[in-house]
């Protein structure tokens, strides 16, 4: 199980992978398992927020306002990281959320397994 991240310039056609490539700005596929473990642990701990709502088995989209709100959750999430892999995944997620929050009309696509 893993979660891949993609930043899109507009709402992606997430049901049609080929069409979604037209809006793709950046992607990250290197930390999927660690990110899924980290975000999944939030649910087990009863943590609420935007990131706790990410579906590790399906697709979740966040627009730039939601990404900005999720950014504020990262400091609290950092304390739950179990090792370097999860910290790297969190840093990667932070970069993607920051870019999305700073890009009007953009979306972060969390593509779960």
Give a short synopsis of this structure.
The chain is 43% helix and 19% strand. It is α+β, with helices and mostly antiparallel strands and 113 residues long. Strands 2-1-4-3 form a four-stranded antiparallel beta sheet.
Describe it.
The protein has 113 residues and is α+β, with helices and mostly antiparallel strands. It has 5 helices and 4 strands. It has a 4-stranded antiparallel β-sheet with strand order 2-1-4-3. Helix 2 packs across helix 5 and helix 3 crosses helix 5. The longest helix is centred in the last third of the chain and has 18 residues. The radius of gyration is 13 Å and the shape is globular. The mean pLDDT is 91.
Layout of helices and strands:
Blueprint: E1 3-8, H1 17-20, E2 24-28, H2 32-45, E3 59-63, H3 64-71, H4 74-78, H5 84-101, E4 107-112
Antiparallel strand pairs: 1-2, 1-4, 3-4
Helix pairs in contact: 2-5, 3-5
Rg: 13 Å
Oligomer: single chain
Overall morphology: globular
Structural class: alpha+beta
Poorly predicted runs are none
Instruction: State mean pLDDT (0 to 100 scale).
Output: 91
Distance, first to last CA: 5 Å
Q: In percent, how much strand structure appears in the residues?
A: 15-25%
Main β sheet profile? 4 strands, antiparallel
Q: So how many helices?
A: 5
Helical proportion? Answer: 40-55%
Number of strands: 4
Strand order of the largest sheet: 2-1-4-3
SSE pattern: EHEHEHHHE
């Amino acid at each position: 199980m893993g979660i891949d991240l993609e930043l899109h310039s507009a709402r992606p056609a997430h049901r049609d992978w080929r069409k979604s490539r037209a809006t793709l700005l950046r992607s990250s596929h290197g930390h999927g398992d660690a990110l899924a473990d980290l975000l999944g642990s939030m649910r087990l701990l009863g943590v609420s927020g935007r990131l706790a709502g990410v579906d590790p088995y399906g697709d979740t989209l966040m627009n730039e306002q939601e990404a900005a709100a999720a950014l504020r959750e990262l400091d609290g999430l950092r304390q739950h990281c179990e090792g370097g892999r999860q910290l790297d995944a969190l840093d990667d997620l932070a970069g993607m959320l920051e870019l999305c929050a700073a890009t009007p009309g953009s979306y972060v696509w969390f593509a779960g397994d």
